[in-house]
Amino acid sequence: MKKFTFALMALLAFTFSLKAQQYVSTEPANRNVIIEEFTGRGCGYCPDGHRIANELMAAHPGRLWAVNIHAGGYAQTSYPNMITQDGNTIHGGFNISGYPCGVVNRSTAAAQDRGQWSSTANNQLNQASECNIAGMVVINPETRMAAITVEVYYTGNSTVDQNYLTVAMLQDSILGSQSDYGNPSFNPTQWIGNQYVHTHILRDIISASAWGDPISPTTQGTLITQTYEYEIPEIIGSPNGVVVDLNNIHFLAWVAERQQGNAYRPILTGCELDMVQGVDEPIYPSITGVNQVGGTTCTHMKDIEVNIQNIGTDVLTSMTIEVEMEGETQTINWEGELLQYLVEKIPVVVEVPYGTYPIHVAITEANGQPFEKEAIGSVECIEWQEVGIEGEEDELKLELMQDKFGNQITWEMTTPDGTILGSGGPYTMLMGGTATQLHIEHITVPVDECVKFTIYDSGDNGICCTNGQGYYIVKDSQGNVLFGDVNDGEFGSEASHLISVRNPQVQVEVGETDVMNVDYNHAEFCSTLIYEGYPDEVGFSYRKVTSSEATTVVGILNEFHKILAMVDDLEHSSIYMVQAYAIVNGQTYYGAETTFQTWMWGVNELENSLKLYPNPTANVLNVEGKGMANIEVYNTVGQRVMTQEVNGNMVQINTESLGNGLYVVRIYANDGNVLNRTFSVAR
Questions:
Q1: H or E element: which one contains 287?
Q2: Is the confidence at residue 262, as pLDDT, over 80?
Q3: d(C-alpha 96, C-alpha 125), whole Å
Q4: Residue 1 resides in a domain
Q5: Residue 489 sits in the same domain as residue 581
Q6: Could you point out which of 72, 358, 467, 524 has its C-alpha 20 to 30 Å from the C-alpha of 57?
């Protein structure tokens, strides 16, 4: 599984470089901690060990890491087989009497019970380290080759002349079986249905030995730089091996004082190596994620985030991105400056019917050159129940009839940002094979809120059947049943429902923004607000099309229900998107986004003479100006819909083929300058 170049093989003697370090600190620091946790899928108490290790990692971020090693009698070769030869070697180097167990910085010859990890870890974290360690992993996703650089700097003297450097690859998010003697589960956060999410699993040791490679000298002021070239396998494990997912791996490195054997051999310090993707080609944007964001909401308009990483050697300055769902395609023309290894998060809004749908993203152009890179994500819209109220809140009522195993039942009601409005359980385990008991719960939900009700059963069989006929019903304050049935408590491990609580009398509609009096850095905005009453605030949100960060300007609402505002801090020759907003009863309502472009410096003759009329137009738009060369027309998503050459100072554009809406006309001048103006088609 390991692959080294000939030159790198020669470096295994770890001759140190005199040049300055790139990654590692030269300042004295305390030890970081590596916990090697010996575990397995057949071990019923092992999830409790996973929980304890997770809590220690959360308590000491960037200072402590767990390495789950599947070895010993409870490790299983059925799928997913996470046993490795290196893991077996490390397992054999310690005295082990039960599972789960672990060694903390290899500070003990015998593995410790999980209850001892915390105190031992704290002791290690408070000790001064003889050295610091840091580094970088650059992965080529096309070839699966990883270029690994590790630096060790000695801030003090080691007690021995030779130490040992280990580099390990770990993997998260491996789904599979797991024994669990907890009641309820020892570690409920790692269960998805009846599948356990295995994390920080040792997949491979990149060093030549499972115990690390020798490094020296180990005296204060020494900088040691080691590089590896490692081909990441497609699958590790035999039989029933597990795919090595590049999106779920990470690399750890640590320095140990000595190698194997039962003598005292502590780990002096460790770290997680920074990791990026990279290729040798100059232009290479990579789609690293297509994710739905913003939580579960009661709307068909869903926010998607497309993560694009520049893994090429050149700076990315422009991209054309197409987002397609259910036959509808959006084209995004991105401009900016994306340096090598950095990631740009590009926001997209799509309209989603009820259900789950694939969303296809393609990069078709980069830095003005054709490019092909595709990725597929998914977007979901869960059907919701409407609750109409006149006041500020409504009290929902939960009727929950538990079965015998009430100790397996929990529930919660949450908002899209994760705020818990109500929760309950676990309940009492009842006597009798089919015993039941009714629980009544009340949850207060504010108006204009979308809440998610979820009920869980750690027994994975709902609240029904041979354990007693349970059920759950949720009603509004008027007694209307929103969901649930007295005859149905069979839902497996969990069930979820959405509820939208709103005041149906509040009708708010924010119109599309008209942009007026645009020049180099100035623009004036106008929109229409339909609302019976006076809003808390009105204004406009505007951003450059190359940026996801918007700026807000508070506006005024005149007697004609027009929202008005102006800005004077725009950049010249830039394309912007603007949308009006209104805040009513704490809820923000937005209008459609409008595109406009500021003037370019140095445009004089054409700018002063340019006229567009009639605007709006039904069939023909007259464009008049001196020095025009040709004209292009774009829709609001950046698609070019028309091109027309100009011969003279007057041209007519036939708009009969265009649908109603806003368009941008781009006029190219004979001197090379460009002007953009907006017009509307209305019939």
A1: strand 285-293
A2: no
A3: 24
A4: no
A5: no
A6: 72
For residue 201, give every residue at least 6 positions away whose Cβ sits within 8 Å of its Cβ, in sequence order, or none.
Answer: 68, 70, 82, 170, 171, 172, 174
- 9 CB-contact burial (10 Å; exposed 0-12 / middle 13-18 / buried 19+): exposed
**CB–CB of 526/594 below 8 Å?**
no
| Beta bridge pairs of residue 450 | 500
Cβ-count burial of 421 within 10 angstroms (0-12 exposed, 13-18 middle, 19+ buried)?
middle
Task: Give which of 324, 333, 334 is closest to 304, Cα–Cα.
Answer: 324
Confidence of residue 260 (pLDDT cuts 50, 70, 90): low
One DSSP character per residue, 414-462 reads E-TT--EEEEE---PBPSSTT--EEEEEEEEEETTEEEEEEEEETTSS-
392 plus 482 within the same structural domain: yes
**Distance separating alpha carbons of residues 538 and 532, to the nearest angstrom:** 14
Is residue 593 within 8 A of residue 608, CB to CB? The reply is no
At residue 5, does pLDDT exceed 90? no
- Contact by Cβ (8 Å): 323, 345: no
CA distance linking residue 329 with residue 639, whole number of Å:
11
CB contact at 8 A, 273 and 245: no
Query: Which residue type sits at 485?
Result: D
Q: What is the CATH number of the domain that holds 661?
A: 2.60.40.3080
Q: Is residue 166 within 8 Å of residue 89, measured between CB atoms?
A: no
Indicate the pTM of the whole model: 0.58
Share of the chain above pLDDT 90, in %: 60
Give the angle 393-399-402 at the CA atoms, nearest 5°.
145
User: Is the distance from CB of 415 to CB of 421 less than 8 angstroms?
Assistant: yes
How many domains does the structure of the chain reveal? 5
Per-residue tokens: 270: 């460790």
Tell whether omega for the bond before 353 is within 30 degrees of 0, i.e. cis: no
In this predicted model, what pLDDT tens digit does every residue of 207-248 receive, in sequence order?
A: 999 999 999 999 999 999 999 999 999 999 999 999 999 989
What tokens were used for 424? 């309950």
| Domain interval for residue 343 | 285-380
